[in-house]
Design goal:
This protein is an alpha+beta fold. It has 17 helices and 35 strands. A six-stranded antiparallel β-barrel has the order 9-10-16-15-12-17. A four-stranded parallel sheet has the order 2-1-7-8, with helices on both faces. The protein has a four-stranded antiparallel sheet with strand order 20-21-22-23, covered by helices on one side. Helix 5 runs antiparallel to helix 16, helix 6 packs across helix 15 and helix 9 crosses helix 12. The longest helix is centred in the N-terminal third of the chain and has 28 residues. The C terminus is likely disordered.
């Protein structure tokens, strides 16, 4: 009997799925999407109901041809792309391309790549969900309309190379609006006052735990507000003359419940907060954990369930397995009387479970030897969070003191963990309150010291990747799977830069946002963008047709575009800035050039001053220059950051980056090692450690993998600026070439793939 052809997205997933299927199946990878809207034209026929025109992606033509040959030789074709809108679209595009070769096509999906999950799914083959497909196509066309119709107006009125996007521009607006709040903030002085106290008769240093600090809470029964140093000094002096009495003691035990397991957005936030992973890295590593990797004798094994989900739902089987693991790993007391349930948001699709371990007999410490550090750290985070979510609540004894000192009331709270419960697995969920001594109401207290601190009200903080994701999710803007590419796009366009891990909009980003808010008000409205996401959910559920949303959006967009054509532009003069030219004192502007946007003097050509748009301040380092002894600084140049002497131009020392080991031997067989080096212009290349005796060098990355056609010891990966990356053999007589896997990326809302 002929084999069944199974098609998944990536080689890693193919390897894992193939591990669980028998000889009756052959598993191949499509390397993601195989068709898309054309790159050089809109590809959407508005007149015929927004009909899209799809083309095979040029880099995927060879892959498609191979899949068509395999389909023709197979009994049936089973499409096993990821279980979401994007996976449904990949499957549909493949079905359209393979129908002539083999019309016997089925769809299968699974939430976890385990032996049980895969085999159960293959027992229930289905068809493509046309509602999910309609939702994906609608989003894709919406983004294409926004990108292809608004961006040209920006090019005409402001500068070439700019882009706008349905979600991208709204995310940028959040950052710009926050920066305006920060600039508008006026700091107000205030003082905090606290008393360090001890039980009467105890010396300050006699027993440290009996000394505690209470904060001033009320004055004459009203909330304490201390506006300046004079008021603070008067209160401190008054308190020093007063008697401190423990007026009220409240002791109560309360349960502290675990948080829910991770969904996509909370995983992105927590991985940033606890591991300092950028959102893009989190999704890339999670994808690897889901698709599977070699785990010792187990072979290729998927470690987590599908990582693109907004549901807290957990299967009964997973709950039972988790409860057994908790009882064995901790104690029966840590298992709750009944499984913990968590409610998802009302608008959640609830198509998948929450993110959880796929195997409860593979705790983090067991798989650690087989994982890279970043993979282990993220797996441990997911494991601990899920196990904690299924554990009994912790029992906390909370103690609260109300302390009087004349007309002043001081308060302090402390707590003791009586039963750790879920905290045994998730200590991040614990509190940080002080431990208080055992005292009775009416006890006299000894004042050890009064403390007063001057403070000023602070503006809201700039967004980090984690807090931006949290804000986007809270407002219902976009979907968690699109956050990583959206964040990447606004940085690539130089709309924002990162300073100490926080986003600051550039003058260009601010001007573009203001322009869009002025001329496309509703499209940049937070609630309208969230409403569009709700409509996409309705389409995926079959409650709405995609063409209806497209017609409404297009009519609104056309009205804005007609009015926008009449506005005055700044393309010739440049975007005006508040800064002055350091050479002639004239106003600076942002202009567009061959390599993107830059700052320039408005008096050009009389004054030819120009500077980087995203220039950052130099930062002193705790290192000294080996040539002159001056302090080294981190500087930022045209080709990125570098370390140089602070006494430049007197001393022109520049610290060179150390080569990075790749772990591969030189392919020329000279006995040297391949190192990753950087040129003076900041471009990376690969060269031999025995240079100049050996002159091996390559711009393309080396892969420790033999060529399947000619047997060459290494292959190379090329990542062109335009187009998809691919793997190839350098042997001139060998024609081997295949698409290279890459993390899923979404459009800058105007182009590409990745909207889940």
């Amino acid at each position: 009997m002929a084999q069944s052809l199974v098609i998944v997205e990536s080689p890693a997933k193919a390897k894992t799925v193939n591990h669980y299927l028998g000889r009756d199946y052959v598993v191949k990878a499509s390397m993601g999407h195989v068709r898309d809207l054309p790159k050089k034209k809109m590809g959407v026929d508005v007149a015929t109901g927004f009909q899209p025109t799809y083309e095979v992606i040029p880099e995927k033509k060879k892959t498609v041809a191979e899949l068509q040959r395999a389909a023709k030789e197979s009994e049936r074709v089973i499409l096993a792309a990821d279980p979401d809108r994007e996976g449904e679209a990949i499957s549909w595009h493949l079905s359209q391309l393979l129908a002539d070769a083999n019309p016997n096509i089925f769809r299968v999906s699974f939430n976890e790549i385990t032996e049980e999950g895969v085999q159960a799914a293959f027992e229930h083959l289905g068809q493509i969900d046309l509602n999910l497909l309609d939702a994906q196509q609608t989003r894709r066309i919406l983004d294409r309309l926004a990108g292809y119709l608004i961006s040209p107006l920006l090019w005409k009125k402001i500068a070439r190379g700019l882009s706008a996007g349905r979600v991208q521009s709204v995310a940028l607006r959040l950052i710009v609006d926050r920066e305006k709040e920060i600039k508008a903030h006026v700091a107000e002085e205030y003082w905090t006052i606290a008393a360090r106290l001890a039980a009467a008769g105890q010396e300050a240093a006699a027993e440290a735990p009996r000394v505690f600090k209470a904060a001033l809470a009320k004055i004459d029964g009203k909330k304490a507000r201390v506006a300046n140093g004079d008021q603070a000094a008067a209160i401190v002096e008054d308190c020093r003359r007063s008697t401190f009495v423990l007026d009220q003691v409240q002791v109560r035990s309360k349960p502290k419940h675990a948080g829910p397991p991770y969904i996509t957005s909370t995983l992105q936030q927590e991985a940033f907060r606890l591991l300092r992973f950028p959102v893009k890295k989190t999704m890339f590593v999670a994808q690897k954990l889901y698709e599977g990797m070699p785990i010792g004798e187990l072979g290729q094994t998927g470690l987590i369930t599908y990582m693109r989900t907004d549901s807290f739902r957990v299967s009964e089987a997973a709950q039972a397995a988790a409860r057994a693991a908790i009882s064995q790993r901790y104690s029966p007391a840590h298992v709750p009387a009944k499984p913990n349930e968590y409610r998802s948001k009302k608008k959640t699709q609830d198509a998948h479970e929450a993110i959880r371990p796929a195997h409860f007999d593979l705790p983090p410490e067991k798989v650690k030897p087989f994982l890279k550090k970043e993979e282990y750290d993220l797996y441990k985070l997911i494991w601990n969070r899920f196990i904690a979510s299924q554990m009994a609540p912790a029992v906390i004894e909370e103690t609260a003191f109300d302390i009087t000192a004349g007309r002043y009331l001081f308060q302090v709270k402390g707590e003791v963990v009586k039963f750790d419960g879920f905290l045994a697995a998730w200590p991040n969920g614990g509190g940080d309150k002080a431990l208080l001594p055992k005292l009775e109401a009416g006890a006299a207290l000894t004042l050890v010291e009064m403390e007063s601190t001057q403070k000023f009200t602070e503006p809201p903080p700039r967004y980090t990747e984690g807090t931006l994701v949290k804000e986007l999710e809270a407002r219902g803007i976009g979907r968690p799977s699109t956050y990583a590419p959206t964040i990447a796009t606004i940085q690539t366009r130089t709309y924002v830069i990162k300073e100490e891990g926080k986003f600051r909009p550039t003058e260009l980003g601010t001007y573009v946002t203001d322009f869009l808010v002025k001329h496309f008000a509703k499209l940049l409205d937070y609630k309208f963008t969230a409403h569009m996401e709700e409509e996409l959910d309705q389409i995926s559920e079959g409650a709405r047709k995609g063409v209806d949303s497209l017609q409404e959006f297009y009519a609104l967009l056309q009205g804005y575009l007609e009015k926008g054509q009449e506005t005055e532009g700044v393309k010739k003069t440049g975007i005006p800035l508040e800064e002055k030219c350091p050479k002639c004192g004239g106003p600076l502007v942002v202009k567009s050039g061959r390599f993107g946007q830059f700052k320039a003097c408005s008096n050009y050509p009389t004054c030819k001053f120009r500077d980087s748009l995203d220039k950052k301040e130099s930062k002193p380092l705790d290192e000294t220059c080996p040539d002159c002894g001056a302090r080294l600084e981190q500087k930022f140049g045209r080709f990125g950051p570098f370390i140089a002497c602070s006494s430049y131009p007197t001393c022109k020392y520049i610290k060179k980056d150390k080569p990075v080991e790749t772990g591969m031997a030189c392919p020329l067989g000279c006995g040297g090692r391949v190192l990753k080096r950087k040129t003076k212009r900041g471009k990376f290349f690969f060269g031999c450690s025995r240079y100049p005796k050996c002159h091996f060098a390559s711009w393309d990355e080396l892969l420790d993998r033999a060529c399947p056609l000619c047997g060459a010891k290494v292959l190379y990966k090329k990542s062109p600026i335009r187009g998809e990356p691919y793997v190839y053999c350098k042997n001139e007589k060998c024609a081997f070439k295949e698409a290279a896997p890459r993390p899923t990326a979404a459009p800058g809302d105007g182009d590409g793939q990745g909207n889940r």
